[in-house]
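thought: fold this chain, then report.
action: predict
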Amino acid sequence: MAWVAALVAGLLFGSGLLLSRMCDPQRVLGFLDVAGAWNPALALTMGGAILVAAPAFWWARRRHETVLGAVITLPDRFKFDSALFGGSAIFGLGWGLSGICPGPGLLLLTAGSTRAIVFVAGMIAGFYALSGLRRAKATS
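observation:
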């Protein structure tokens, strides 16, 4: 049942990206261009996502389990460390340079976009690099 819920959530998320056209890197870069031809569409999309997600987070913080009964462990909202700042900087740099973040990257991958293939390959390489860094830190 958990994989069905994940599939439905993924399809809903992908549909939202398509409907809002946030899988178009130029729309995202237009949002990031605050000194030029700024496009507020991404801000409106994020606002809508927050309205939809807020009740789910309220539920999760109160119940500590999913609707299907799986235990939820949420991260500490007030923990600011080098991993948070470093990861945020790397994510922001990649997003600003490409106009693609992981969700739209995977969606664009289904269309065979060369740009998306390079982005997703870099994202996967980053996952492996982080895993290696964590292993090295654990053994030292």
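thought: worth noting. Residues 1-74 form one domain.
final: tokens above.
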